[in-house]
Amino acid sequence: MHSEYKDVSIDQGATFNSLPDDLPCNEEQTQQDNGDASEQADQSQSPEKDELRPGLVLDSCMQPPDIAQEALSYGDGIFSVAPAQGNKPVGFFAIPKLEAMAFPVQFPTGQNTLDEVREKKLSPSKYFNARLFCVDTRFASDQSYLFFAQFVTETHMATNSMSIQMRKGKPITRDGRKISSKMLQDKQEVEKLITNKDATRFMQPLRGTPAYWEKTLKDLNAMVRQLGKPTFFLTFSAAEMRWPEVIEAVKAQQGEQVDFSQLDWNAKCDILRSNPVTVMRLFEKRVDALMTDLILSPAHPIGEVEDYFYRVEFQARGSPHIHLLVWIKDAPEFGDLQDDSVVIKFIDQYITCQMPDPNADPELHKIVSEVQLHSRNHSKSCKKGNVMCRFGFPKLPMDKTILTYPTPDDDDDDDNDNNDQQQSAQKNRRKGKKGKRKSRALRLRQNEAKDKLQTLRNYISDPNVSFNNLSELLEKCNLTYEEYKKHVTNLTMSNVIVLKRHPKECWVNGYNPDLLRAWNANMDIQFVLDEYSCLMYMMSYVSKPEHEMTEFLNDVIRDVKKTNVNEKDEMKQIMQAYAKHREVSAQEAVARTCSLPLKKCSRNVVFIPTDDNAVKMSLPMSRLKDISPDSDQVWMSGIVEKYADRPRKPEYECLCLADFASRYRAVYGQQSKGKNAVPLLNDKGYIQKRTVGKPAIIRFAAFLRREKSRKVLRATTQTVLSTQIK
């Protein structure tokens, strides 16, 4: 018997009498009461029918039932206004047996909870991993328990991060004083020293928070700056409804076997919702297999990958998808070649929008027909920004893949040589004429192009009309091929790839045949033309889920600053605001709680502080007490200090700071006792050469324009030139 509920009795009569006599059992009505299941659903269905299908969108901690209406239904009782008057408030985590009382089904005896004393103490992260990964699915199948586990885990991490953040500061104060041991041991003095720090930086270790993704953006920016232009940008969406192994694995954990082909949509949704932990873990394994066994394999389906970066994003319906950047060895770069044919040949080698022959390749034809066709009815996401389709469907057909360039405003001659037009467009793009007002001649050309191409768009949008080739379509529109290409170019506002496409393939999204066959769900692949645009595009995806949350936290920070509270209380209020104003799906909660990767990169990123007064971490209080009160040697050694105390050996003497940071890493604990660990001078610790993967990417601070010349020169000198060993 549960120790906390042994004195509780349940009035069965009152419970069952409160239920209505007749419950509606209309399957069609049930479907109408649920949300949009997935953008990967049958594209031939109308948007209205897609929204009526039940899906995973309800698996969110921000979408509970109507609590107010639910409370009103119990209006016959008596409410106690102040039952705790005169008592002392108890913290949320200070409540004994909290987990057992909140989840009596999971803990029928009220024992073996998180707060129990054990011989070996478990952190919340390890404890909940054991619970959610247990063969007993009572924990993984309860989404309330899942969100509880995430809240406890992240709150514990935030508390630890606050303690670390409180130890960070700059060695020199604003009034020019050096921070001493005595100052750091004075609580009031410490509060004065830390008032100017970033109030959300302590949230960086909390995966999925705005601070976490802000750091990710900086790392990605450093990758693009150091590695150059990425080659491909890919997106892979989840389609659990199409993957029999996912549903069969969930039912196998429940001791049952099912025939996937006999399950309807509702049955599949119920199975997936019954165990989001297994569903998310299988997605993570599928992504890992896609990367390891295919993309990074010797098969080279998109070329030999030298580096990559991907991020897991969770859609509004809860299912994850992957955004991936890859750098391909010896890939041609747009803009470096006078002839675009090399780039076009490379694109055609790995990207296609062709509808496969159903007789020659029925498997691929089936996949493309089911997941790569854009809906003719257009979903709600297509119409964002008051446009018919922000993805540009139906795509314009073309006999061969071409690269289009933006027409310069000052080019009024429609018969200019194509090469001169391309050079002029590239010149104007380098000058940054994005914000320049369009000339009257350009507006006239664009309006004419829109009018001429609108007739063509109407034909390819009509499902009752078909054409055998592009020539037949152009003849119907009274256009020559050269006129058609000219109108397409006149509508181009930036460099655009127009893939080879038959008129019957205008609704097919671009894909790679090998990757699509293996993934068996919607994908997209694009060749990167401009690294700056690609970086901003990737940044928008990385920061999209937390954009509104960032604005909200900024408002909270401004309000907290007005209350004149100390740094620790400020961080607590920010964490509480974040915990109460976010939307997390069940699968995202699994990824956060169980430490499944939300991002992955082929290289580590190391930050090198180059400022004169860079932020450092102070020594622990236990060590500060043993130091002279007037001593300013109160900081832990960072990468710069370790570099200065590198070993007196030839292979280290010629290293600059950038090479040292990218090739070596600091090791602690048992790793410092390994045979590959190298001791530093002056007891500054141990380093070890990076043997797994490639050298790390280095990142350093950006500077304002007015102070750029001096600080950039100092940063370059400090990181690139080697210094003498002390």
Automatic annotation (TrEMBL):
Comp. bias (Acidic residues): 408-418
Domain Helitron helicase-like intervals: 128-326
Protein name from the UniProt record: Helitron helicase-like domain-containing protein
Biased composition (Basic residues): 427-440
Region Disordered, residue ranges: 1-51, 402-440
Superkingdom of source: Eukaryota
Composition bias type Polar residues, residue spans: 27-46
